[in-house]
Amino acid sequence: MPKVAQVIDERCLLNRDLVAQMLDWTGRRPRRGRLYRAFFATLYYAGLRPEEAVALRVGDATLPETGWGEFLVHEAQPEVGSRWTDTGDVHEERDLKGRGEGDTRTVPIHPSLVALLREIIKEYDLKPAALR
Question: Of 52, 60, 81, 126, which has the fewest CB atoms closer than 10 Å, so is most exposed?
Fold first, then answer.
C-alpha cells in the first residue's frame, strides 16, 4: 500500500507575526528574558537545532553592521543530564548530526538576528569565547 502524506493544518504553524509576538513577549520577561529571546530568535532565523544553538560562542558568529551574517556551527551540546555524562555536566559535547567527526557547517544569519545578537553582545559585554 502506498504511503500517504500527512495533512498539516497550516493554521497550527508558526508565522512571521506570531514569532515576532513570541520573541517580543520573551524579551520582556525579567532577568534572562533578553537572552532567551536571542536563543529562540537563533532557532527561528538561522534554523539551528537547540543543541547547536546552545554550543555557539560569540566567536562563531560573523556579525556585520548591516546585512546578513553567518554562524560557523561546529558542535552540538544536547542536554542529557549530569548523571549520564563523564564530566557531570548537564550537556554533552557531540559532533553535528549527520556529519563526520570534526565537520562544520556555515549557516546564514538573517539581518534581524544579526542586529539582535550585536545588541546582546554589547549589552552583556560578551567576549569571543563566551557562551550564548
Answer: 81
List pLDDT tens digits, range 35-45. Answer: 999 999 999 99
- Cell 532567551, residue located: 36
Q: Domain coordinates of the chain in residue numbers?
A: 10-123
Number of C-beta neighbours around residue 6 at 10 A: 5
Give the span between the Cα atoms of 41 and 55, in whole angstroms. 15
Cβ-based neighbours of 96, under 8 Å, separated by 6 or more: 52, 73, 74, 75, 76, 103, 104, 105
Q: What is the pLDDT of residues 15-60, one digit of tens each?
A: 889 999 999 999 999 999 999 999 999 999 999 988 888 888 899 9
Q: How far apart are CA 77 and CA 55, in angstroms?
A: 5
- DSSP-derived secondary structure for 52-96: HHHH-BGGGEE--SSS-EEEEE--B--B--GGGSSS--SB--BPP
Q: How many Å is the Cα radius of gyration of the chain?
A: 17
Which residue, 57, 39, 42, 56, is CA-closest to 128?
Answer: 57
- C-alpha separations of 55 from 14, 22, 52, 71 in Å: 25, 23, 5, 11
